[in-house]
Amino acid sequence: MLGTHSLALFATTVFVVNATPGVDMLFTLTQTLRHGVASGIAAALGIVAGCVVHTLVAAFGLAALLETSAALFAIVKWAGAAYLVWLAIGMLRTGASAAAPMDAPAARLAGEGAAAAAVRATSPDLARVFRQGLLTNVLNPKIAVFFLALLPQFIDAGAPDKLAAFLFLGGWFVVQGLLFLIAFVLLVAPLRRWRASAALRRGLNFAGAALFAGLAARLALVERAG
Q: What residues does each domain of the chain span?
């Protein structure tokens, strides 16, 4: 479809990315538990709006690279493979931890959320929550690199329009991510308190590490064959 391939694997990858605890998930969780469904969905919409920004920046940057030099594009893809390996190693290390804690930015965000909740008991400004979600996502450079590393692996080498294929995959990522976050909000909203178990966090990290390592290996083999 539009010069893409292995869409089932792509959908699985996107699910693992969305389900792995991180800053975006924690922000959505805290907004939902503090203020309810509307605030959680506003946070989710802000986060996926950030993903739209990353998709457009990565897509048009990638198109420029393709038009300028195939060698430069190959370098970017190798850098992407190295990033996926680094990400897999980081997820393995996190999963191996007994507690599998959130990263420092997430912990900081949770602390700020608790402080804000103590000060403000009124209903939240949904536009403000949306902007916070947007900035939380857009200002994370790892997400921009991740888009450029992941999406090209699901584009056929002979695709007639690689930019259209990239935008299609980016749109898929955004829609699937939004559906996941909305389902997550509806799941946690009735709960007074919710925290993923250490076993679940370990399992998600190990699954993500295996998936990203496999994608990096596949990318390396494709480059050698080419």
A: 7-99+139-225
